[in-house]
Amino acid sequence: MSIARQCELLSICRSSYYYKATGETLLNLLLMRLIDEQFMETPYYGARQMARHLRREGYCVSRKRIGRLMRNMGLSAIYQKPNTSKPHPEHKIYPYLLRGMIINKPNQVWCTDITYIPMRRGFLYLVAIMDWASRKVLSWRLSNTLDADFCVEALEEAIERYGTPEIFNTDQGSQFTSYAFTNVLKDASIRISMDGKGRWMDNVMIERLWRSLKYECIYLNAFETGSEARQGISRWIKRYNEQRPHSKLDDKTPNEAYWQKPRPGYAGPSIKLAA
Predict the structure, then answer these.
(1) CA nearest to 241, candidates 121, 128, 120, 81
(2) What is the mean predicted confidence (pLDDT) over 92-118?
(3) Under the phi-then-psi rule, with left for phi > 0, alpha for psi from -120 to 50, and beta for the rest, what region is 35?
(4) Which residues contact residue 219 at a Cβ distance below 8 angstroms, ignoring those fewer than 6 apart?
(5) For residues 126 and 141, is the Cβ–Cβ distance under 8 A?
(6) What pLDDT score does 83 carry?
(7) Which CATH number among 1.10.10.10, 3.10.180.10, 3.40.50.720, 3.30.420.10 corresponds to the domain 109-258?
(8) Measuring CA to CA, which residue among 101, 181, 169, 183 is closest to residue 131?
(9) What is the pTM of this model?
C-alpha cells in the first residue's frame, strides 16, 4: 500500500509523515546550559531576569525566547504567583506533612524531584528517589520527555528494592500529582506529602543532590548520547552512595547511614578505666 493511501486512510497529511523534528539549535542548547547553571545559583530568576543576565553575558536574547527554553527545561522561577487559573477538580494537591517533624531514621520519609540534564547535542530529564534521613539515592531514571511514566518506574523500583516509607514527599509537579504516580503510593499505604507552591526549601535535600551532581559530574562532562549520560550518572551516584561522607550523617556515607552501620575507624565511645 502506498504512503499516500496509508495517510488517506489515517486522515493525516502526507507532509506530516515525512516531517522530522529538527530539535534545538546549537545556540539554544548553549543557552539552556547557561540558564541551568544560573538557575542553580538563583532559582528565583524568571524569564525576564534570566534574559537580562544573558544579555549582560553578551547574548542577544529576548524574554520570549528564554521563557520558551525555560518551559522546555521544566524550570519555573520560585516566587509567589497570582492565582490566575484554577486546577482541574481531579488534580488533587496533598498537604505538606513534614513541618516540624524530626526525620532521623531510614524509610521514615522519601522524597523525589526532576531535574534537567544538558548534553552536548540535546538534553534529558532525570528523576531520583531519595531517603531523606540518610540521603541515599534509592533509584533513578532518565527520560527525553516529562511524562509521568519514568517517575512511576523509579518509584516502583525503589519500593521493590527497599520496601515502603512512612511518608513520600514531592513537589506539585504534574508527574507527581498524576493518578499513575499517586496510586502506586496509595496502594502501598504510603502517606503523601507535597511542598507548598514555590517552596523549593520544603524538598531541600534533593535540591542539594542536584547541585552536587551537576557541578561534580554533568557540567564537567559533555555527554554525547543518552547511554553516555546514563553511565556517567550511574558512576557518580554509586560513588555518592558508597564513598561520599556527609557531616550531617556523622561523616558516614549514605549507604552506611541507611543500613545503620558504624563509619570505618569508629571504635565507639571511649571508656575511661579506673586506675
Answers:
(1) 128
(2) 92
(3) alpha
(4) 37
(5) yes
(6) 38
(7) 3.30.420.10
(8) 169
(9) 0.76
